[in-house]
């Protein structure tokens, strides 16, 4: 009997800032070496330690808007006064090669992708989407994590917490929700979801 190739997944992971999506995505990429990480473009300045082409592609706003008009992004959104966008070419190439594509994006971006696949797009993208929301145990825990990062001012943290409450109100739009109470447990739940989706017939 010839085994059927596993279907490639477009894995969308969202969470409030400080919710753990970046750490979980890093662990996923180590666990699944063939997985392709989608590096987003952003108009914000690099944070300490961030590297061009590894963490983000850092663009001036006129260049970002030029790419929006050219249709280069599968999704884009303005978050915390800056623009973020996901280049679509890398995602489509990965899926067509039978590889998973991993996107760490906000709730606006995830909604744009859902809207996109409800329209006339390739069948492989329609069947590939798996959207997952990672939620902290509580707003208090999230505040502790943001304070502990030492990267933001009190004003910025207050803005992120206000946005977090709005974002968490959108979690029912996702197929899966994972509570990141303990990182190891959250990662195991994430792996189970991906492995189950690979086996699912659509």
Protein architecture, described:
It contains eight helices and nine strands. It has 202 residues and is α/β, with parallel strands linked by helices. It has a single domain (10-197), classed as P-loop containing nucleotide triphosphate hydrolases (Rossmann fold, 3-Layer(aba) Sandwich). The strands form two sheets. Strands 2-7-1-8-9 form a five-stranded parallel β-sheet, sandwiched between helices. It has a four-stranded mixed β-sheet with strand order 4-3-6-5. The longest helix has 17 residues, at 183-199. It starts with 9 loop residues before the first strand and ends with a helix. The mean pLDDT is 88.
Q: So, the CATH homologous superfamily?
A: P-loop containing nucleotide triphosphate hydrolases
Distance between the termini: 20 Å
Major sheet: arrangement of strands: 2-7-1-8-9
The oligomerization state is: single chain
How many β-strand stretches? 9
Order of helices and strands: EHEEEHEEHEHHEHHEH
- Total helical elements: 8
Work out the helicity level: 40-55%
Radius of gyration: 17 Å
Beta-strand content bin: 15-25%
Which sheet architecture does the biggest sheet show?
A: 5 strands, parallel
What is the CATH class designation? Alpha Beta
Spans of at least 5 consecutive residues with low confidence: none
Shape from CA axes? globular
Average predicted local confidence, pLDDT: 88
Structural class: alpha/beta
Number of domains: 1
- Briefly note the CATH topology name: Rossmann fold
């Amino acid at each position: 009997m010839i085994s059927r190739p596993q279907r490639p997944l477009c894995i969308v992971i969202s969470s409030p800032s400080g919710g753990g999506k970046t750490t979980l995505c890093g662990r996923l990429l180590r666990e699944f070496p063939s997985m392709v990480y989608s590096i987003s473009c952003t108009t914000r300045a690099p944070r300490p330690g961030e590297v061009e082409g590894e963490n983000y592609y850092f663009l001036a706003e006129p260049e970002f808007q030029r790419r929006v008009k050219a249709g280069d992004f599968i999704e884009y959104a303005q978050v915390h006064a800056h623009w973020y966008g996901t280049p679509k070419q890398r995602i489509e190439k990965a899926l067509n090669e039978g590889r998973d594509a991993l996107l760490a994006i906000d709730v606006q971006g995830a909604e744009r992708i859902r809207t996109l696949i409800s329209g006339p797009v390739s069948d492989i993208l329609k069947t590939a989407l798996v959207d997952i929301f990672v939620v902290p145990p509580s707003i208090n825990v999230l505040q502790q994590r943001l304070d502990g990062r030492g990267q933001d001012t009190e004003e910025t943290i207050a803005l992120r917490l206000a946005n977090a409450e709005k974002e968490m109100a959108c979690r029912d739009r996702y197929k899966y929700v994972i509570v990141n109470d303990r990182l190891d447990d959250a990662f195991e739940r994430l792996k189970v979801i991906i492995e189950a989706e690979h086996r699912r017939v659509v």
